[in-house]
Amino acid sequence: MSDLGVLFFVTQHTPLSYDYVLVAKTINNQERESFRKQTEYIEELKKKNFKVTKIIDDNLVFYGIQAPKEIFEKYRYLLKVSDACNWNPEYFCYYSLYLLICTENLRELIKMKVFETKFCLHEVKCFVCLFLILGFKNYFGEKVALYFLWLGWYTFLLIPPAIIGIIIFLYGISYYKHSPLLNEVCNSNTTMCPLCDNGCKEWQLNDTCIYTKVTLLFDNEGTVFFAMFMAIWATLFLEFWKRHRATYVCEWKVSDWSEEEEELILELVNDVNCEPKKFKHSYWTSSLIFICLTIMILVIISLTSAVVVFRVIAADFLAKYKLKSLGNHSNISVMVLGGFLHYFIITIMTRVNWIVARKLCDMEEIRSFASTEKSFTVKMFTFQFFTYFTSLFYAAFILGRINGRPGNYVKIAGRWRLEECHPTGCLTDLFIQMTIIMVLKQTISNVFEFTGPWLCRLWKGKRTQKLQRKCAHCYLKDDSDTKDGDELCENCKLRDWLSNYRLNDVDSFSLFREFLEMVIQFSFTTLFVAAFPLAPLLAFINNVIEIRLDAIKMVTLERRMVPKKTNNIGVWLDILEAIGVLAVIVNGLVIGVSSDFIPRLVYRYHYGPCAQGTAAPDTDCMVGYINNTLSTAPIFHVNESYKYSENIPPGEQYKDYRSENDYSHTHQFWIILAARFAFVILFEHVVVICKFIAAWFIPSAPMEVKNCRLSDKLKRLKEELQ
Fold it and tell me: What residue ranges are annotated as transmembrane (predicted)?
């Protein structure tokens, strides 16, 4: 999957003589300031021996730009003598032209509307399926190629966890069908305490039979093994990715490439008297940005609190005015509504986070675009991580643990009680939240990501088709007859330039959006996988589609990205490693704190029918577990709390380990609490040790790659001696 199965499009080259195009609105009044600035900039390019061709089409002016050969010869020579890059003479770097043209001056002119846009020209004329990542590298440069290489590798390594996740899911199906816990709930005659203070009636435990089935699907012994496997898998994925990347980077001759040195070379090519941009740092600016980051994170957390308040109020309303269509599933309805509200907040906050992250980067005194991109990536991912996962952390670790007890419930505004967990555990709430967010994110984002640009191109395509009919004769020429320097006719140039102009715009952060989407998905796949073993399967299916849609979109629906050099995926690797470490902590807490795995173990070996070793051979050791997790509310407190006036059934129960007399925690509660913490510590230490062993055992680069690099360096040194 990393090398194969990726759709790509081969270029049938036409004799294009222009590498870059600037577009401006037609200005009839030559006295205007914008016309003067536009003319001055074009004349400045001509003074540097850039070839500029101007074509006017109605209200648009196109400037085709080609750099002189001597600039590229100088660029090639400096790269060749540089220690930071093993020069590959077959590689033609558009990035050099991009940096030479797209100076700060041009960016300011675009902001001032002197120029409307700028773009590289696509060279795609026919579609052929290629299954080599080399096609991406030759057309889009190493940066885009590494994205597809990483995505293909990630998708390929999702196959083992997807298969194991299916096995765990099937085990859950067989587990709940024969589980005595399901029989206890579905055949129970236990009366539970009301879900709200005023207007709610008591409810029967057996009303939640379906909810129990869903819980037991994912809260079983199999998920413990799966969580441990996924934590180790995250480390193996990253270590094998480093080896995989090293192989291709060595083949592309960019192992020692340095972005800072290349930028210095380009500055020198553009101006031999240039001075390097100085590194700057301000503690005052850094402190201000840190404060802004903290405030933004608190705002995101407060929005999660708003979702919690909504769920509490909705649960109270549905409990009082239960609709016949909902039956006894009002709690599940509240979870689903909360999940959809959370996704709506995610959609809105993604735009807000983007704006805030860009503004914070503008406040920093950053030397180069590479540093800007790294800073923006860290800020944007941090904002998105809190936006996506704060609600999940609440469902996993807070829900049902601070709600109080009968007679002393914790309430919002003294009126609405916090939500309670079902007697079989809280893991179903986390599962529902994850399912809604992950499914909606993948399906809706893919639909809009592809259909939006496609509809835009379809809507804009009428005029381009007319021009295509006018100049079709140019494309009937045999390419083999063309010579170096030959050009298309003006109509044909205009047709190509208009076709590219009417594609969707791309910018320096276009590839960032693709990476962000996949890294957020990686977080879903690893962090809370104990609650949703099918997450790797959904991720795999999504990625098989995503990798093809991205290729089609980049070639046919968007303007061409500026090909750029790189030899790694940048700060994303550090983020992925941080997620891998966090996955160990989170999954350990989910199993030890959120699930009922530990209480069941304690019951099995300390309180259940098999605890004393005297049970009959055919006795199920979990019989009576559900009743063991319930406490009885004293009748006078039930009266006081719920203000019932008549027919109060004695012995109403609630989920907790408390004394019937004074609500104090029982001895079993403290044993379970100690066992939970002991498990979390043991789980995390074992998995972390396994991660370190795996990282140490797997070299970051194959020996063939290291030997190849040594041979290349020796060869270059011998050539220099000659």
Answer: 144-173, 223-241, 288-314, 334-356, 376-399, 518-545, 569-593, 669-698
- Name the nearest CA neighbour of 642 among 333, 405, 422, 421: 405
- Among 272-286, 435-449, 490-504, 533-547, top mean pLDDT goes to 533-547
- Which residues, 6+ apart, have CB-to-CB distance to 110 below 8 Å? 116, 117, 118
* Residue 99: predicted pLDDT: 54
User: pLDDT band for position 8 (50/70/90)?
Assistant: very low
Phi and psi at residue 62, to the nearest 5°: -105, 135
How many Cβ atoms from other residues are within 10 Å of residue 127's Cβ? 14
Please report the pLDDT score of residue 147 as a whole number: 92
Is 513:504 a contact under the CB 8 Å cutoff? no
pLDDT tens for residues 212-261? 888 888 777 888 888 888 888 988 899 899 989 988 888 888 887 777 77
- Residues 472, 477, 483, CA angle at the centre, nearest 5°? 130
CA atoms within 13 Å, Cβ hemisphere of 456: 18
Q: Which residue has the tokens 């592309």?
A: 252
Residue 107 φ then ψ, to 5°: -60, -40
Spatial separation of the C-alpha atoms in residues 460 and 125, rounded to whole Å: 19
Distance (Å, whole) CA 19 – CA 665: 75
Tokens of 608: 């259940």
Q: Which residue has the tokens 């950053």?
A: 366
DSSP state of 144: H
Calculate what percentage of the chain has a pLDDT beyond 90: 12
Residue 722 makes CB contacts below 8 A (sequence gap 6+) with: none
- Of how many residues is the chain composed? 722
What's the predicted TM-score (pTM) here? 0.85
β partners of residue 117: 23
Ordered by where they begin, the domains of the chain are: 20-121 (3.30.70), 144-476+490-597 (no CATH)
What sign does the CA torsion over 513, 518, 522, 528 have? positive
DSSP 277: P
Cα separation, 600 vs 216, in Å, equals 12
Strands 191-192, 51-57: pairing kind: unpaired
Burial 402-433 (b: 16+ CB within 10 A, else e): ebebbeebeeeeeebbbbbbbbbbbbbbbbbb
Cα–Cα distance measured from residue 663 to residue 170, given in angstroms and rounded to the nearest whole number: 40
Structure tokens at 438: 């992950």
Q: Is the pLDDT of residue 406 over 90?
A: no
CA distances from 597 to 184, 220, 396 (A): 17, 7, 14
* Distance between CA atoms of residues 169 and 175, nearest Å: 10
DSSP code of 476?
G
Which tokens is 593 given? Answer: 């704190």
Of all helices (H) and strands (E), which one includes residue 513? helix 510-527
The answer to whether 397 and 433 are in contact (CB under 8 A) is no
Nearest to 573 by CA among 378, 706, 367: 378
- 269-316: per-residue pLDDT in tens? 777 777 777 777 788 888 899 999 999 999 999 988 888 888 888 777
Half-sphere exposure of 698 (CA within 13 A, CB side): 17
Pairwise CA distance, residues 567 & 88, whole Å = 14
DSSP secondary structure string for all residues of 59-117: TEEEEEEE--HHHHHHHHHHHHH-TT----TT---HHHHHHHHS-HHHHHHHHTTSS-E
d(CA 722, CA 715): 11
DSSP string, 282-351: -HHHHHHHHHHHHHHHHHHHHHHHHHHHHHHHHHHHHHHS--TTTTT-HHHHHHHHHHHHHHHHHHHHHH
Residue 140 amino acid letter: F
Q: CB-based burial of residue 58 (10 Å sphere; 0-12 exposed, 13-18 middle, 19+ buried)?
A: exposed
pLDDT beyond 80 at 102: no
Compute the distance between CA of residue 144 and CA of residue 120 in angstroms, rounded to an integer.
15
Cross-strand pairs, 203: 192
Residue 52: beta bridge partners?
Answer: 65
